[in-house]
Batch of 4 targets.
Target 1
Amino acid sequence: MSNIPTKSILVICPSDIVLTGLFEILKGSQAEEIIQLHRGDEIFDYPALAGHFLVIASPEEIEKSSALIRKILSTDGSVQFMNLQLEPVAVNTNQAVNLFDSPALICYKANEIMNSFPANQSKDTNAELTRRETEVLKLLTKGYSNKEIADQLFVSTHTVISHRKNISEKTGIKSASGMTMYAILKKIIDVNDIDTADLI
Amino acid sequence: MELFNENNKLASVIHKDHSLLPVINRLGIKLGFGDKTIRNICEEKGIDLNFFVETINVFHYEAYFPEKRLLDFSVSMVIEYLLKTHKYYIEYLIPENDRLIELFLAANPAESAENDLVRRFYTKFKDEFVIHMNFEERVMFPYILELNGAILNPDLRDAFIKKYPGYSIEGYEKEHSNMDDKMDDLKNIIIKYLPPNYDQNRGNAFLFNLFMFDKDLKNHSRIEDHILIPKVKQLEKVLMSHE
């Protein structure tokens, strides 16, 4: 599981011809995922989407469903909109995908917008645990509760919980028994010091 | 991501996403379907077309989960699918995982302490999982099916209420997140923290199987937590309104 927010494109259009065409063309863009919807409210069918989104839809559709789409999609990333102009006479602009744009131009425009997404400020997952986090980890592997660890280290339970969260983010390990395994494999604790039958 | 529809040929669906193979088996389909479309096959086998299409799409693409439509499927259909999934885990996936992890660990007898840890972590996870499935099959699913029966047939209501006074799924409900977390931890430990002197091919074989297991398990949890349990709560409310 990676912590890098993905960049996806959401194309909304009632026409399957347009959807399929844009889907094939946008495979050439830097989007990692392209999702096709006939109507904006079909976004309800995708509750688990995450990352940054470029939404391509008609101006009317954007007006109608941008609030809903923002609400569902912008929990952990940004959402940008680009107009889909299907009238052949529409003014050619960089802010819109036009009916007669070449595939390369469409991808270029989409990439321009996706490049503006905030760079991945992911926490450094390779970072070593701090001294304090290592102490918390050691106590965790001995089976102490958050409260007991807080008492031993003279900090609040809240601080212990926040250390635990950081340990999970840095190591990618969530369960208590997983953390014990990690601590042993990384030689932070000795396997003989703990009761593995109980803790793993 | 392209979703599949009833007019797709099943063979091309499998070419695009072969992880659906066990899913179509559970839905009652074996290989050898030629050029038939999903619609042809479902009609031939008497399989609910919508259930088939939504089930493969939900499995195919994690972000897709049309809750409203999924809640329309009958409880018995969902449970039948979940039971077949359990059977697949018990009869194939878990034994296969056991075999692969042993091969993997046996290739590196020098690291016996580490091997022992990995084995213990996996075994504990597996035992918990098997207990969880047994509980669902012996206690939770029968309760749900009886509740469903009592809704469909008013004659059964009194007997049901007598058997389950204060009936409520909340007592049975078990969070799946704990199991999903342990599965992630196991993958991460093997990928990120195992000492480097292990047998690559056996390690990969074990991980491939584990990834398959993981995908299946998360899908399974999602169906139970977001479809089955909410549906049962709806049914309980309906029954309560008749009391």
Note: Chain A touches chain B through 29 residues (CB under 8 Å).
Target 2
Amino acid sequence: MKAFRTLYLKELRSLLPFLLLIVVLTSVSLLDVALTKFPDQQTLATLFGHNFGDDGSIIILFFLTFALTQGLLMRERSENTLEFLDSLPSSRSLIFICKCAAGLSLLMIFPLGENALAFILHAISRHSSAPDLHLVFFAKSLLFDIWMTLVFFGIGLTFSFLGRFSLLALIFVGLWYGTFKEMQLPWIESIDPFANVYDNMLGNSLLLPWRALISQMAISILLTLLSWWGFTKLGTSSNRFTLWKNRLVLTLLALGVGIATVSWVVIKRRNIAATPHSFLPDAYVPDFPSWQTAQTTTESFTFIYPSNQLQQAGKLISTAESVHKQVTSFFKVAPNRSLVIDLTSQSPRHAGTAYWKRVRMNLSANSSITELEAILGHELTHIYISQLSNNKINERFNSTRFFHEGLASYLEYRLFRESSDLPKIRKLAAIAKVRNRIRFEQLVDSTKLSQTHAIELIYPFGELFIAAVVSHYGDSAPEKLIRAFAREGAPAKLNAMTLWEDTFQSCEYNLEEVIAVFYELLANEIKLHQTFINNLPSIRAEVVRQGILVGVKLSSSSGSAITELKTEQLICRFRSDKDTPENQYLSGHTDDNNTSWVLSSYFSGKTFWYQVGFQLPGLSAPVMSPWKRSSIPKQGSEN
Amino acid sequence: MILAILYKELRQHWWAFLLIVLICSLGFFGQFTSSTLSEGHGSHFTLLTKFGIFIALASLVLVNRLVASEYHSQTQLFLESLPLPRGRMILIKYLLGLTVITLLAASAFTVTLLLGLRTEVIDSNFIAYLLLRFGAFCYFTYCFFFLYGFLGRYRIAFFIAIVFTSLLFPKMTDWELTDLPPIELIGATFAYEREHFPLKPFAVTISLAFIFSLAGLALATLREGSVAGLLGEQMSHREKVSIAGLIIALIFTAYFIDERNPKEPYQMHNASCVGSLAQGIVVSVAPPSAEGQILANKIHEDLTALSLYLQIEKLPPVFVIRRNDLDPETHEAGSLKNKEGIIMRTNFAHSEWDFNQFNESLIARVLGAYSNDRIRKEDRFWVLDGFTLFWSRRNEVPQSSPPKALDRSPDLLLRALYGTSERPPLTPSSMRRWFSQQDELGHEITAGIACSLLRVLESAVGEKKCQAFLRSILAVKNPSRASTSLRDLLAPPEKLFLQHTGMQLADFLSLWQQELQRLRPAYQEQLNTLPQISGELEFVKLSLNSSQANYSLVDSVDKSPNLKKRLYYATLPPFANYVPEHLLIPVPLDFTANSHSGILPDDFPRGTRLLFTFSLYSKALKCRIISGWQRKEAH
């Protein structure tokens, strides 16, 4: 005990710089509140409104832990004090325990401080209609932070043995984790220590994702044990790690393990994709085609296309210049003569995508030349928006996405589709306004919009906004606004409404007037299609469970079966948390009872999100309801 | 000798080189897989952009091995004892590291080129552009870290400074990381641009790389290598503390300067404008029109009078936008996060639009913004609640003499009487719990109660004292910091009330109750005809995890058709108790029936918290009567 205390205090003294760092970091939060806010008006609702738990504190905790653990064990070797330690009447294991205890003691100050501050602020900010202290929530939050500190500690200890390679290795591991996430393997999120646990809120209750936490802790314990073993072997005469043969063997072994892991993952992923009802749409299966490609150059374009689709490609190639001319005429710019049109895309999710001077289109998915021209026109608009703004508009894509897609859709429908097609997109805006009460302010933050609603709404609403701009300020207004992004002295740190206010003001336009016109146009569309909207089915969803599957049963709002829609018209998609990227949404498999199923193992937390909708002829996209979060029913609670 | 040194370096670091190459190769493969799966790439050459981070880290590790560890362990002294110029020795290390990086970069480039053969338009021009841009970036990165390696014990501090600068600088200025020439070289246009070569960023990058290389070589050879040797030594305790303190001070200063920057006023073009910033009050109404000008003048006049009454020098500029799609009684508030000003959207051209009603909302927002929302703290909120009506209805002609009697606005008096019927009398404690009052009665009724309080106060203590009290709450400056909270803790509204009016709040409340009781009999008949409204909302399970919401309305007393019977509901975010007005979903109820039931069209997953109330419009009160805001959770 005495030896433990002595060693523990010795380690604490050597970690004093970290104590200072931790105190400083904790003080930043305190000073932030003290110097820039009213401490007695910071309820938990206010803190949550400012992204409580999503503000990077878990990242700070990780890097703090990582930095501390880097020197905790290996410093003894680099400073050649191992022999001194060995001369003490204490085992390596005791020294290891003391070091870990000292390190953890310091690290705990950060989560304790952060949670204590949040609790005190909430306690003094409560008011009569919200008097609850939410002790259980704070206890869980603190438990989670302490738990994660322990998880990060084990990871950091192991990486510390890599010395200067630790940072490289960390990024490497992170990259591969991201790759596995893209593959959408079940269970993979269970080992993500950065998953936003505060997304697992059910009402005011925080549901800790125990399965994921235990998985992570198990890995951390294993890594800690490995570190303990490594520390006990460090610097001993039996350590022949410095021998080149052993280093080579170790490197090849690590490489072998890495390749084996990756291969297993890839094979497993393909097996899942090949399994019926694997609940993965084809979009997520990477395909490496074997057909050859050919190229054709026109005045403005170089086309790349599958050589076995020459006829289909030929149709588009022959009319592409005309499409190009119409787009450039609208923008009143000279046509760019070095654009690449890549027709080899196989993405069923995107008919076309635009990059800087390059368009990718899925030739196979669209057979009609009108459709191909419309898509090309849409994508070329994106290219010219980027060009005219010198790419500045893309640097704030979160705030400008609705404008990008809106203008592209506007020109698509105005120049390349029949006027009778316009209601297909406008009706969607009208429906979303009536049913979901979408406001303009939501469009200028596409991340927040995608968290609550279908991101596809930026197309119809964006198109209507551009129509409002053009109606109020003329055809040249969109081009003027785009160029305003690239003007000298344009402020770089604006976003959302302030960005658009600034942009409009620089053109001597009035954003609020355009918004007023936008709402007027929207009101007109609602009036025009009122009957259609009133007759739309209302879908209700029930969350159900069956074995390893979680499902959403769709019925009409009266509770009876849906008669107006066929099963194939119903849509249900899932995601694990509100920040899941769109390309990682899961499509459910819908059975004959209109229940859409997905594997529960895709969700590492205790909650999941679902969104229901339906596709109707006469609409350019499905009608989707807002995203909803539900707890995952327990296995055994089958309906 | 050169070969010998080379052989020595290879023998010493082959393992590190191999590991770097392996990690980078696997990293490249991982990026390729991720890119293919995410469908996020328009060109295979974007892989090189992403691979840049591996080049940077590989450079960092390489230089650490080749340079930093040599000087840290002072084995360079051995090398300097060899018959080889110091500069040549450093040059060998420099070139060796550069060779490894070049091999890595070249391999990545070649593989990417091969991958892109099918779907890229490849010509010599394009390849040259890509090669030059990527090559320049890699060279710059390596040279930067080469110099970095010689900073010795100041490496960490330098690294922290770089990291925080790159995080804070973009926040505080209009500069962005992507503006840096080396980053710009492999930026968004790298994989696609085949026409214009970014000559300026290229030249700057290469120049910087040369400068870093020369600086590194200079550091290594300066004063016969003693400078580099000294830098490689351990930091003293004093140095550590000094540098840590300096970095922390810089971080704090930068952060808080940015946070406390005053907001610039918002500007609106093409609007009817009255006033100026110099005068302290600016009102703009858009779009410009004769009607808008009249409204702007009226608002400006009112705000000028308000600023005189409360002795406020400068009020936030006000912008009013006409919105023809809004109902006449709807007044939406806009949000200006980084600019100073108030935006209100309203349908002021509508025939049923009421200026007083609009002005209530406007005054609340103006004073809220002026006070940094301090006035919305619960213990003093009743003052704002009452003042919005007190001020906007101040010019109403008294119904009877003497002037300024409580009953000069019958509807407001009725609100006060309605809100205090069969309820415990108001006490200083319940005044501090104003949000609960609002929950039970609704904002419009509590505003009527608070307005009557202010009117009684004015008649009891005189205009000057009443004004002084109002100023002490509404017009005081409230900088956003803890000292304001402390100030208010030491001087709560009750204390200010006593200080400025000479009356204890409890005594005043008794006086006010007496005044209401005196007037109640005259209005009892009207009160008896006012409707009561009540209703219930229950969650009924559809499944274990989903529910539907069944509601039922019962109202009594009033058999005549009431206007605008509604159920208002909204989903609450975690821990929130309220939502902005525009998020409330109105469900129209049958106005001819006294009872009505139905099912909300939505389904509610378990855990959904719902805020709801039933309401109807009372012509006599000129406001809504509610059943009381309730919050329920679907289980």
Note: The CA atoms of residues 222 and 228 of chain B lie 8 Å apart.
Target 3
Amino acid sequence: MYDLIIFIVLLAMGYGFGRYAEASHYKSIIKREKQLNKIPAVATRIPPLDRQDLNSQLVSGSVVISVDYFKRFVAGLRNIFGGRMIAYETLLDRARREAILRMKEEARGLNAEFVFNIKLETSSIYKGRRNSVGSVEVFAYGTALYPS
Amino acid sequence: MEYSNPELPEGINTSKSHPLKEFAILTFGLLGLIILVLTATIVVVDNFADKIPFEVEQKLPVTSLLNINNTERLPPYLNTLTRKVVNSVNLPVGMHITFHYVNDDTVNAFATLGGNIVLYRGLIEKLQNENELSMVIAHEIAHIKYRHPILSTTHGIVVGIALTALSSTVGNSVVNSLIGSTGDATLMRFSRDFEYQADRDAIKSLVALYGDAGGALGLFRILAQEDTKASPFEFLATHPLTENRLQQAEKMNARLSTGHKNTVIEYPQDFRSWLTRQHSKSHDQ
């Protein structure tokens, strides 16, 4: 009886706080992406050969985002039936974009014109009980090119 | 060379469907599936559990396993009463019922494997008259008659195995606890059906013995006062809500009662004083 109440409260809390955090995070991501769009981050490995006036430096950004109770529960059910892990899609989308943003912010500090050869690493950290994912880390890094 | 990052539209990497929709489909899908599969399994297994001979049950060392070997001899009045009630029930051939009395404040009585029925002093004291006590005894006898103890045991084993197998493959503690609760709820459904069935049989015995089911109504009213701590949701309890049991009893009483009045038999005086002595004996220790 009490287990059920606690479970429902946790689920509702996870859902409420999770939704709120996600909405406000997306708002902030979209806003900052617009601001930092002037520093393009590209995946190409070859730097512009016509520019001899640029210095390079490694820039990186990482973020750790926790799964909420609601998402973990829905994902656990999804594990049984299979299909799109919708609950985790937004989580990873947010983490990737936030990591790139943080990397770009570092690049902006260098007055970089762009970041090339960007790479993303994803890892799930804190494997909770029975290996359920607790939170994800996304690490973005690349080479910032800035005027010397 | 020019480099640029396009502004991608939102929702490419994420799904637009509402998270609660996925939650509802998955949760109710899983719960429904578990309940369906377990119920079907239990119904199938019941057909086999039914066939376990009663003698096998009787050979089990139930009294020592359940720690009810501290029971005492029944006083003459209880002995006569239990025999009277047993005789009012058509027990299958070879079924023998053993009554145990425990001098303890616990307000309870239960029937278990091997035809053993345990009565606690706490419950007998709470009851007002013989009719109510007969209701308790007849209810427990009905459990034995329908082999409820062996069926419940089998249900527990089957559900336990099925859920352990499922849980170990899921590997998510939150989902596992939900699966466990669903299994419990399924078991409790069967348990509540047993209670209703035992109540119906016991009421018939009461009517045969006393002309009406007043003892059942009295018993449920007493139980209603007792179970203030019980769960307000029936699906989370092994026993039906006392309210619903009272309703069933009232309906049956209206239908079956022979119309004779004043059929209430009080506890005899010597039994009352015996109860008082037992009470103080238990509290002195």
Note: Chain A touches chain B at residues 1, 3-4, 7, 15, 19, 26, 30, 33-34, 37, 40-42, 48, 50, 69-81, 84, 86-87, 89-90, 92-93, 114, 116, 128-132 (CB under 8 Å).
Target 4
Amino acid sequence: MKEKKLREAFLRAGARLGPDPAGRNRAIAPLFRAAREKEIRYDPGWADLLRAQMSGIPAAVWAAQFCLLCALPLLEWALERYTDLEGWQVFPALSVCMAAAGLLTVQELAGHFSHRMAELEQSCYLNLSQLWLLRACCLSGTDVILVLALSGLRAKAHGFGMFAFAVYVLTPFFLSNLIFLSVFRNGRGRGRAWFGGAAFTGLSVCAQCVFPQIYDRIWLPVWTGILVLAAVCCGMQILSLCRRMEGEIVCWN
Amino acid sequence: MGKDERLMRLVRQGRTEYLEEIVSRHYDDVYRFCRFQTGDPQAAYDLAQETFLRFIQYAENSKDSPRAYLLTVARNVCRDHWREKKRRNETTLPDPEAGEPFGEDGGFLAPGERRDTAYTGTADAFSGRTETRLLLEDALLLLPEFQREALVLHYYYGCKYREIGKMTGVPAATVKSRVRQGCRKLRELLGEDVL
């Protein structure tokens, strides 16, 4: 009751304190002038930048990523249903899928380094480093989120914990990303380097088949260490590539 | 999305003509806030103008609704105004002990001018509404600035404690206590029967 009375008293007071029409018009005129002369300087926030970059990634890349990631649970389900493979034996196949998803990410990002692309984007006032970083985060982030979702759904079926499942699948993803980024950075134009990178990635997957004991619980801390190291190195590689884009040398390919 | 938000979105997209509509829609609100804060119509015009000029300057950065953003800017502008006055030692806040009266329009009187009300000039004299014609807006000016702004934002503009906290940079619990203390003082000044 008292609240209502107070509110009414304030509204009455407000009605008494309104501007007189002549004074209002006089005061508003320069404000309208300032509004007409105003030039909007668009300064997008992180959400806007993210949205713009997401829409900038070609639909084909999204489709390929989506197919690969859909293949992941399908493959896992099919192997479990139609073969006598044990839980750990599914992981090499999942690792190949994740490595391929990583390769797709790097492939898309590498497109920005194609001949004259940097000059073109620079002349269009695009912030290449920002663009690169955001796209890398978008694509990798999507993969990681989907893998985590899969881990949550399927970890129990294999007798692994969700954490262990995620570590076993994400490690090859980050390792392959790291290998491709390193080759991309240091071995551009050298076919042997690319071949070496691909071979190393393939062998790292085979190693899991040859030495199944690496999926024992005892090795989980090692897996985790490799995953963290690979993720940190990937981040450093991306930042380093971004820095390389800045400065006087715009196009360095 | 409300009309204000739609207008702000258009402004951010470069349609500056909509700034005029925002100014028109919110001028009275901002003016009243400044008037509640200062009690002086001329100062309120100046402060409202300063508020809108700042708003126009930074319009593209505003993320809140224009009303909340404008009231926040107006509050800061009023604070700057008082700080500047204090710095120049020209504070004309009415001093109930000294018996300085308010103007006819709720503002301060020029030196020598007196209001033809029964106002006797002491806080005690405000306690009986029948003896004085002290208005709510006059009594508000006797409160500390932070209580006044909390009361005005809560009771006149209908802002929630959380919103006021966001505008003033204090927790909602602090706003609530300011409002409560302000109400108590207002009742002391204006009388229980009035509020």
Note: Residues 95-195 of chain B form a domain with the Arc Repressor Mutant, subunit A fold (CATH 1.10.10.10).
